[in-house]
Design brief:
- Keywords: Signal.
- This protein has 51 residues and is mainly alpha-helical.
- The chain has one domain.
- The protein is 75% helix and 0% strand.
- The mean pLDDT is 77.
């Protein structure tokens, strides 16, 4: 029984560590939109056809 409890605590500790890391690396929607727009602008080789 003690072995099972130790394993459970170890798994719980790992889950907490990974969830804390995931919260720190979240990317906002606005930054994703800006990255997509910038990638599109960078890939366009000509001048903007807009007046």
């Amino acid at each position: 029984m003690k072995k099972t409890g130790t394993g459970f605590v170890a798994i719980l500790a790992l889950l907490c560590a990974f969830s804390a890391h995931a919260r720190e690396t979240q990317v906002t929607d606005a930054s994703i939109v800006n990255a997509i727009i910038q990638e599109s602008i960078d890939s366009y080789s000509g001048n903007c056809p807009c007046p």
